Amino acid sequence: MPAKPPILVDLKFDPETVARILKTAFADRGSINLADPVNKHRDLTGIDYALLWKPDADLFTRAPNLKVIFSGGAGVDSFMNLPGLPDVPIVRFSDRSLTTRMSEWVVMQCLMHLRQQHQHDKDQRARIWGKLVPPEAAEISVGIMGLGVLGQDAAYKLKVMGFNVIGWSRSRKEIDGVETYDSSQLDEFLSKTDFLVGLLPLTPETTGFYNAALFSKLRQGGALGKPVFINAGRGKSQVQADIVAAVKGGVLGGASIDVFAVEPLASDDPLWGLENVFITPHDAAVSDETALFRHVERQIARYEDGEPLQFVVDRQRGY
What we know:
Blueprint: E1 7-11, H1 15-22, E2 31-33, E3 49-53, H2 59-62, E4 68-71, E5 90-91, H3 96-114, H4 117-126, E6 141-145, H5 149-160, E7 164-168, E8 179-181, H6 186-191, E9 195-198, H7 212-215, E10 228-231, H8 240-248, E11 254-257, E12 277-279, H9 289-304
């Protein structure tokens, strides 16, 4: 039996971690790690499978005969516009670990805003014994935009914490215990939302989606007075200058942002200094490399056994 061609890996993750785990991953076929300088000019024309996250711009020119492309994350926007993208199945990463991490982050941010953690932090630095009386979670409506695997899991866990949860997606989803809305009901959804959680994929329609006009439609006068914007979806889906203006102008009472149009966030960006704005460095749901490689192995086994691939991207929708 001829040897199986290795898996092409071009992941802009921590290179030492990727290299270490690849030593034992894909034991039946091996891998070509493009982060290794020895592979800089290697012939890739015989490669069947590629695992990618923010790959080099010429990747598809160098590897023109791919059969399946695997994304290193839940999204696929890091390579969808690269030249030469072949017409083959594209599989996004879906894993219990990634889903759990995202829900942890979303719940944590909602709780920090609910319990006014920014004021406790401020009081601690000033050595002030400042007691607060925050509302209960049940008094806050969390509106989740994006009801895929991540959004649905976050909704379930927020409900466990006592929040009222509503959800929005382009086409309406049926979720037990969650009032849901579709694209035609956007304004109604926003008018009922105190904490807006962004988990939308990046598509032409969602680019710049979270902007001044949208923030102005969120509920004012709720249990905390002002609405809050929480985004762990995609950085290019938000207009950062509008977030700054909305917080400064009192349209938003605060924000939690994990993703940015340009990363890392510039040290002089005004978001850093805003009160009640929590910044995290795109680590809300970092992909676990071991889980990622196992996911790829499972999907390749399905494909080669004639079973349908899971988590295949709809190219027309972009997710």
